[in-house]
Amino acid sequence: LGDPVRFLLEFCLIPFDEDTVRSREGFEALKASGKLAFDQVPLLEIDGLQLVQTQAILRYVAGSKGLRGYTPADQGVADMVVNGILDARMPLITARFGADPQAALSKFESVTLPRLVRNVERILLAHDGGYICRGGLSYADIVLFEFLCYVADECQASLDSILCEDAPRVLKHHARISGFPHMREYLSSPRRKPRPDATFVRSTCAILGMPCPAHAQLTPGSAGSPAPVASESGRSSSRGWSFAALGVAATLCAALLLMPTRRAMAATR
After folding, report:
1. Among residues 164, 187, 210, which one ends one of the domains?
2. Most-buried pick from 2, 42, 175, 261 (CB within 10 A)?
3. Can you name one GO molecular function term for this protein (predicted)?
4. Rg of the chain's alpha carbons, rounded to an integer?
């Protein structure tokens, strides 16, 4: 999962350069490099440390910026909410590579999303401080914010219309995080990744050697856009975090290569 990591890096004002994995050969070379434990991605690499798995990367970045939670209890709650969010979105991600993504979206909107939002609403009510954890802002707040941005993109509707009046605290929480000026800037910037389309699905299937679902295949006479190429900068800095990404299905959620340097990072509070 690339976007939760991207959003957290952006929130923490961590500069990074992003390179897109463009070919099956490039992905195989990344695996052959020995950097991917379990031959899985995403990958975080910093000063010889190599981490895979989205949750591990999020916790590492959060820990480096004081966003893991103030107490063991806060950390447990933050991890619980993040795990729940990542679990909730996975069927929708993998459905993009299935036969009927619209059916998966309908089920997500009617079953999965209401259940998740209902539980998060309860947590926000119990803690009564505006954030997921009693001790204040944590990485779980950023992951929740990114998830709701993702939901709005997938449903192609505003959060107010999606959640209606069933989640006042969740909506207030979203407005609170979007109130950070640098997050508002990021959301409207070219650094924000567009909603994945059929070209994305075709490119990913080609890179991973997966069958391309019928809904994403080119029709006779149509022209497909090329796979993402070249280098694209986040908070660009040749000395910052390097981030290579590829969205995929099943257990491979994103091929990410993060190579940060030791450098001063702006405070998040």
Report:
1. 187
2. 42
3. glutathione transferase activity
4. 18
Whether residues 234 and 182 share a domain: the answer is: no
pTM of the model: 0.80
Token duo for residue 170:
């969740």
Amino acid at 89: R
Domain membership of residue 263 (yes or no) is no
Give dist(CA 218, CA 237) in Å, integer: 37
For β-strands 16-20 and 231-233, DSSP reports them as antiparallel
User: What is the predicted pLDDT for the residue at 55?
Assistant: 92
Which of the listed residues 163, 187, 211 is the one where a domain comes to its end? 187
| Count helices and strands in the chain by DSSP H and E runs | 11, 6
Residue-number span of the structural domain to which 141 is assigned: 72-187
* DSSP annotation of 179: T
Q: What is the pLDDT of residues 127-169, one digit of tens each?
A: 887 999 999 999 999 999 999 999 988 888 888 888 877 799 9
